C-alpha cells in the first residue's frame, strides 16, 4: 500500500512520521490506521531503527477521529473501529525503539489518544489538548479513558473527560501529560536531539527497559520485578551489551554497541 496520509522520512537511525491531512486537521480515518499499521510492521523489521517521532502537518497534531467518516457507523461498526484504533496505538508499545509524540498543535480526542500511545510527549507552546468527545455525545474510543487516568491520575483525567476543556501546553506539563514544552520552531529538533541521545545508549537496554516498563505496568510489583530480573540477566555474559558498556566505562572509552 502506498502512503497517502503518512509521510515517513528517515534521518539516519530515526524515522519521522508526519500525519498529513491538513484540510481535515489530520483527523484519523480508516486509511490512517491501515497506513500506521503498515508503518509499524516496517519499523518492527528494521534492525537499524533507533527511534520513531510522530508529528502532525499544519496547525493540528491530530484533531480527533474523522467525525464525517464515523457519523453513520452502526454500533457494531463503531465498536470494531474503536478496537482497530486501540490495537494500532497499543502496537507502539511493542516496538523495540522509543516512540516520541511531537505535538505541534491541536491534540484532541483520538489525537490525544494517539499521543498517549507514544512512550512520551514533547509539546510546542502552541499545542492544545483535550478529550472533547462528550461534546459530540461520545466517549473516547482509542483507550483514552484508560490511558489518561494512568498518565495524569483519576481526578485530572475525569476533569478533562467530563468538561471537554481544552488545555494548553503549560497545563499539560503541570499534570504530567507532556514531558517538555518548547518553542514551535524547536519542536522537531528537540525531539531529534532526544531521539539521538537515546540512540547513543545500549540498543538492547533501551528495548528491554521499554518492554519491561510497559509489560510490568498492569501487573503486580512482584510480577513486574521478576520481568525486570529476567531482562537484567539478558544484558550480562560474554559478548553482552552490558559487558561492553561496563568495560567501556572502566576503560574510559565510548562503548561499541
Ligand atoms: N473530523 C473530521 N473533520 C475535522 C475534524 C475531525 N475530528 N476536526 C476538524 N475537521 C475539519 C473541519 O470540519 C473543517 O473542515 P471544512 O474546512 O471542510 O469545514 C477543517 O477540519 C478545519 O476545521 P475548523 O474550520 O473547525 O478549524 P478551526 O481552526 O476553527 O478549529 C478545531 C479547529 C478546534 C480543532 C475544530 O476543528 C474542532 O473542534 N474539531 C473537532 C475536535 C473534536 O471534536 N475531536 C474529537 C473527535 S471524536 C474522537 O476523536 C473520538 C475518538 C474515538 C473514536 C472511537 C471509534 C468509534
Report on this structure.
This protein is an alpha/beta fold and 257 residues long. The protein has two domains: 6-199, 2-enoyl-CoA Hydratase, Chain A, domain 1 (Alpha-Beta Complex); 203-250. The chain contains eleven helices and ten strands. It has helices at 30-45, 67-70, 75-94, 110-117, 144-152, 154-163, 169-174, 187-199, 203-217, 221-234, 241-250, and strands at residues 6-11, 14-19, 51-56, 60-62, 99-103, 106-108, 120-124, 128-130, 167-168, 180-182. The protein has a six-stranded mixed β-sheet, with helices on both faces. It has a four-stranded mixed β-sheet with strand order 4-6-8-9. Helix 1 (30-45) runs parallel beside helix 3 (75-94), helix 4 (110-117) crosses helix 5 and helix 9 (203-217) packs antiparallel against helix 10 (221-234). The chain is globular and about 60 Å long. Octanoyl-coenzyme A binds at residues 24-25, 27, 60, 63-68, 70, 78, 81-82, 85, 106, 108-110, 132-133, 136, 138, 140-142. Octanoyl-coenzyme A (CO8) is lined by residues 24-25, 27, 60, 63-68, 70, 78, 81-82, 85, 106, 108-110, 132-133, 136, 138, 140-142.
What descriptors fit this protein?
2 domains, 49% helix, 11 helices, 6-stranded mixed sheet, binds octanoyl-coenzyme A, 257 residues, 4-stranded mixed sheet, alpha/beta, 2-enoyl-CoA Hydratase, Chain A, domain 1
